[in-house]
C-alpha cells in the first residue's frame, strides 16, 4: 500500500498588472504517489488599485501601494515557514508600456520594499507577453484537469489593460501551419505540449481605447489635458478619463463608431500583414475568456457569478442596446438584438461613458481580429472551483 506523505508548501505570486496589483498566495500539497501529483489546496487573493504604472513619476509611492498586500501575506503565511516561502514579483503590460527608466525606478522601489519582509524573493521581473499567455493556459487547464488531454484542452484568450493574449494547444500534425516564433514547446511532468501563443501589446482594453479615441485626431500627446469629440461617445455626453498621466475630456459627435473600432482591429503593417491575426483552428477549440473579457461581461450585466457561457457577439449586442442611435445604420453585422429600458441605458452610460466603445471592441477583437465566429460560445470566467483564473498559478 502507498503511504500518502502530505507535505504542504506556500508560494506567493505578485501580478502587477496595468489596472491593479494582485497577490496570490497558493498552498500546494504534495501527494507523493506514483505518478507524482501536486494538488492546489487553497488560494488567498487580494488586489489593490490602481496599477503601479499610474505612479510612473513616483516610484516610492508605487511600491508603498503594495504594502497592504504584504501585510496580508504576513497574516496568511505561518511565521515558521516565511523564510522558505518563495515570492515572485512579476509585472505585465502596464510596466512594459512605460519608459525604461520609469520601469527601472519602480522595480528598484519594489525590490527595496520586498527586502523589508521575511519571504524568499526568487524573482522581480517583467513577464513577457508569451509567458503570460502560456501561464494562463497552464492555469486554466490545470484547474479543469485537462493539461494532458489530446483533445479537449481549452484555448485561452486573456484581455488585460495593456495587452491581450491568445494561447491554445496545437496538434503535432498541424504544427507546420504556424510560424515558428509563435509556437512554444513546454514541459509538463514528463510530457511536452506544443502551444500556439501570441501577445499583442497595445491591444489591452485601456491602451486600445486610447488608440481608438486618438484615431485621425490631431492632438499633441505631450499635453496633460486633451479635449476632443468622438463618434464612440453618445451625442450630448461628456466622458472624462485619466490615463498615463493625461486627462481626456471627450464629447460625442456624429460618425461611424463601429468602423473606427473595426479599422483599428484590422489594421495592417507596411507589408500588408494584419497586426492581429486569426490563428487556424482557434475557432474549433473550447475557449476560456479571462480578465477583462470577464470583467466587462460582469460590469454590463451579461453574467453574474464566477463564470458563464457567452457568444462572441454578446458584447456588441449589449453595446447596440445601450447606444441604439450610435449603431442604427450598422444593421448587417449581427442580426441579434436585445432591448433595455431607458433607465438601464441611462445607468450604464452615466457610470460608464465608454460602455459602447469597450463592448464593441471586445466583439470586434474576437471576431475580426482573432477570427472567432459571432455565434461561437466562450466561457468568461473569474474563478474555476473557487480558484482565480489568471496566469499567476501557471
From TrEMBL:
Protein's recorded name: Ectonucleoside triphosphate diphosphohydrolase 5-like protein
Catalytic residues in the record: 132
Record InterPro entries: GDA1_CD39_NTPase (IPR000407)
Nucleotidyltransferase in keyword set: no
Cross-referenced PANTHER family: ADENOSINE/GUANOSINE DIPHOSPHATASE, NTPASE, ISOFORM F
Species name: Dinothrombium tinctorium
Family indicated by similarity: Belongs to the GDA1/CD39 NTPase family.
Keywords: ATP-binding, Hydrolase, Nucleotide-binding
Domain of life: Eukaryota
GO molecular function: ATP binding; hydrolase activity
Amino acid at each position: 500500500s502507498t503511504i500518502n506523505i502530505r507535505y504542504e508548501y506556500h508560494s506567493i505570486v505578485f501580478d502587477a498588472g496595468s489596472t491593479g496589483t494582485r497577490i496570490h498566495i497558493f498552498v500546494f500539497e504534495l501527494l507523493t504517489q506514483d505518478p507524482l501529483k501536486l494538488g492546489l489546496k487553497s488560494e488567498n487573493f487580494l488586489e489593490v488599485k490602481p496599477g503601479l504604472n499610474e505612479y510612473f513619476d513616483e516610484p516610492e509611492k508605487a511600491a508603498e501601494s503594495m504594502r497592504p498586500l504584504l501585510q496580508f501575506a504576513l497574516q496568511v503565511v505561518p511565521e515558521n515557514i516565511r523564510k522558505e516561502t518563495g515570492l515572485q514579483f512579476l509585472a505585465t503590460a502596464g510596466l512594459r508600456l512605460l519608459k525604461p527608466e520609469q520601469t527601472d525606478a519602480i522595480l528598484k522601489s519594489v525590490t527595496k520594499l520586498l527586502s523589508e519582509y521575511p519571504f524568499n524573493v526568487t524573482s522581480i521581473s517583467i513577464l513577457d507577453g508569451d509567458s503570460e499567455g502560456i501561464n494562463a493556459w497552464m492555469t486554466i487547464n490545470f484547474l479543469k484537469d485537462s493539461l494532458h488531454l489530446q483533445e479537449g484542452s481549452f484555448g485561452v484568450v486573456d484581455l488585460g489593460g495593456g495587452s491581450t493574449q491568445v494561447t491554445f494547444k496545437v496538434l503535432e500534425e498541424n504544427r507546420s501551419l504556424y510560424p515558428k516564433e509563435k509556437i512554444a514547446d513546454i514541459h509538463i511532468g514528463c510530457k511536452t505540449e506544443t502551444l500556439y501563443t501570441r501577445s499583442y501589446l497595445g491591444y489591452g482594453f485601456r491602451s486600445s481605447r486610447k488608440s481608438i479615441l486618438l484615431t485621425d485626431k490631431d492632438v499633441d500627446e505631450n499635453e496633460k489635458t486633451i479635449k476632443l469629440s468622438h463618434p464612440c461617445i453618445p451625442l450630448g455626453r461628456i466622458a472624462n478619463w485619466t490615463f498615463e498621466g493625461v486627462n481626456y475630456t471627450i464629447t460625442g459627435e456624429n460618425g461611424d463608431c463601429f468602423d473606427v473600432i473595426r479599422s483599428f482591429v484590422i489594421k495592417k503593417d507596411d507589408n500588408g500583414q494584419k497586426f492581429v491575426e486569426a490563428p487556424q483552428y482557434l475557432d474549433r477549440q473550447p475557449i476560456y475568456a479571462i480578465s477583462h473579457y470577464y470583467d466587462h461581461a460582469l460590469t454590463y450585466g451579461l453574467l453574474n457569478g464566477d463564470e458563464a457561457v457567452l457568444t462572441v457577439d454578446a458584447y456588441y449586442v449589449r453595446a447596440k442596446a445601450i447606444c441604439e442611435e450610435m449603431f442604427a445604420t450598422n444593421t448587417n453585422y449581427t442580426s441579434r438584438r436585445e432591448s433595455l429600458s431607458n433607465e438601464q441605458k441611462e445607468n450604464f452610460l452615466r457610470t460608464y461613458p465608454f460602455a459602447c466603445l469597450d463592448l464593441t471592441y471586445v466583439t470586434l477583437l474576437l471576431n475580426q481580429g482573432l477570427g472567432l465566429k459571432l455565434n461561437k460560445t466562450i466561457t468568461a470566467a473569474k474563478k474555476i472551483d473557487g480558484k482565480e483564473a489568471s496566469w499567476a498559478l501557471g
